[in-house]
Design goal:
The complex is a heterodimer of chains A (271) and B (170). Chain A is α+β, with helices and mostly antiparallel strands and 271 residues long. Chain A is built from ten helices and six strands, in the order H-H-H-H-H-H-H-H-H-E-E-E-E-E-E-H. With 170 residues, chain B is mostly helical. Chain B is elongated. The chains are: A alpha+beta (271), B mainly alpha (170).
Chain lengths: 271, 170
């Protein structure tokens, strides 16, 4: 036929459409006639049809693996951020950068932070107008993302040096943190200090897990108690909870299960 | 006062989170990255909710956003940081206790598809799992219809050849 299929050039795409049942007439009938007459075409169809799989069923199982609670938590965060972004911003757009500057000035007992500014990977950076909504956990995550194993290198490990300091700094958030509460077998304690979040004191206890920085951060938080929740920010795992008028979080580039265990132990010790 | 578009997006998101995560997993082969992609998609979708047309499909609109975040932002950044991509076999792990036979077969399908190049596997996923037409998949993935068909043909041929090889070995 004059305007029929060019039988010297039948594309894979046409065969695909035929196999998927979406090839329209009159091409469909024409193609079937050609297939009937051609071993080569039949072979091509056979190979492509052999590429069928129970795709939908296989991928259905993946749905069950989705971490629903975490995803909902993420949605909640997004809604809160949007809500707060639409409210008048109390501290002005330069707030985030002022906070970053304060944090960078803080020093470790016996060591100093590197003084140059490290660029946080672009896609998780939040615009200044949204920072009031970020909350303290995001601020901690942004700060923690700057850490390397060298950051803590100057800090001494002897516990005695830290104990007196610990009592003094933890009083600043209104907690009495004794050394036995924060000592762990596979975490090297590297010191405690007070940071400033939005004008309020934030207690940070720094550790090294092997070469990886892990931090426990505590702020006063009047919201009701909450069980340990997991989240991820800036490619770091976080476990956080609230109790007795305080908010707690542990953060680090360590497996989520390990962080969860640590969080549960801490929660018990601080309850 | 919240707009109708905002309400539609806000109210429709919760039940779509699992499918979004699954799509993120198909693209990145990494469950944690998939979580980040879903979160970023929620933020972007709420920011741009006024662009959503009521009475169109929310799921496809969200897939388009997630796809764009992966392609234009997160994927390039991960390559720059040298994080590369996970070996599909190590990422997809199932609790096979309940449906052993189904899971063995499913695992094989998932492994084969996830081993395809990203362009092919995202197309196979959109058309044969999410059930989009070639034209709808072209819109979500932001490529011409001809490209969709070409990717599917190549993927099916590749999978077809795998089947023949396996049969030969048995």
């Amino acid at each position: 036929m004059a305007n029929g299929i060019d039988k010297s050039n039948i594309s894979d795409e046409m065969l695909l459409a035929y196999i998927d049942g979406v090839l329209a007439e009159p091409e469909r009938t024409q193609l079937e006639q050609l297939i009937a007459a051609s071993v080569v075409l039949r072979h091509r169809i056979e190979v492509m049809a052999g590429g069928s799989r129970a795709f939908a069923e296989a991928y259905e199982l993946l749905l069950e693996q989705a971490p629903v609670a975490k995803l909902r938590g993420g949605l909640e965060n997004a809604l809160e951020a949007r809500e707060a972004a639409l409210r008048p911003e109390p501290s002005g757009p330069g707030w985030r950068y002022a906070l970053a500057a304060c944090l960078l000035v803080a020093t470790f007992a016996g060591g100093l932070l590197t003084s140059h500014i490290v660029d946080i990977p672009g896609w998780s950076t939040v615009k200044p107008t949204q920072t009031a909504a970020k909350g303290w956990r995001q601020a901690v995550a942004d700060y923690h993302a700057l850490y390397t194993s060298e950051t803590f290198a100057g800090a001494p490990d002897e516990p005695l040096k830290h104990i007196a300091n610990l009592r003094r700094v933890s009083a600043r958030v209104g907690l009495n943190v004794t050394f036995d509460k924060i000592v762990f077998k596979n975490l090297q304690f590297k010191g405690a200090r007070i940071l400033n979040f939005n004008g309020k004191p934030l207690l940070q206890l720094a550790y090294l897990r092997g070469s990886r920085p892990v931090a426990l951060c505590i702020v006063k938080d009047a919201k009701p108690a909450q069980n340990v929740q997991n989240e991820r920010r800036n490619n770091l795992n976080i476990a956080h909870w609230r109790g007795n008028g305080f908010g707690f979080m542990v953060i680090g580039d360590v497996p989520e299960t390990e962080l969860g265990t640590l969080a549960k132990q801490l929660r018990l010790r601080f309850s | 006062m919240a707009s109708a578009e905002f309400k539609a997006v806000r109210d429709g998101l919760p039940e779509l989170l699992q499918r979004l995560w699954r799509y993120g997993l198909v693209l990145s082969n990494d469950g944690n990255v998939a979580e980040d992609l879903v979160q970023a998609t929620c933020v972007r979708a709420l920011e741009r909710c006024e662009q959503f047309q009521l009475d169109t499909r929310l799921d496809r609109w969200l897939f388009t956003i997630l796809n764009s975040i992966w392609k234009n932002e997160l994927r390039a950044q991960r390559v720059r940081q040298g994080q590369g991509f996970e070996d599909p076999e190590t990422v997809l792990v199932f609790d096979g206790s309940q449906h052993v036979e189904t899971n063995i077969l499913a695992t094989q399908v998932l492994t084969e598809v996830q081993a395809l190049p990203e362009a092919q596997r995202e197309t196979v996923f959109m058309v044969y799992v999410e059930g989009l037409t070639y034209k709808q998949a072209a819109e979500v993935l932001d490529v011409p219809v001809g490209t969709i068909m070409s990717r599917l043909a190549t993927a099916r041929t590749k999978l077809g050849e795998l089947s023949r090889e396996q049969k030969r070995r048995m």
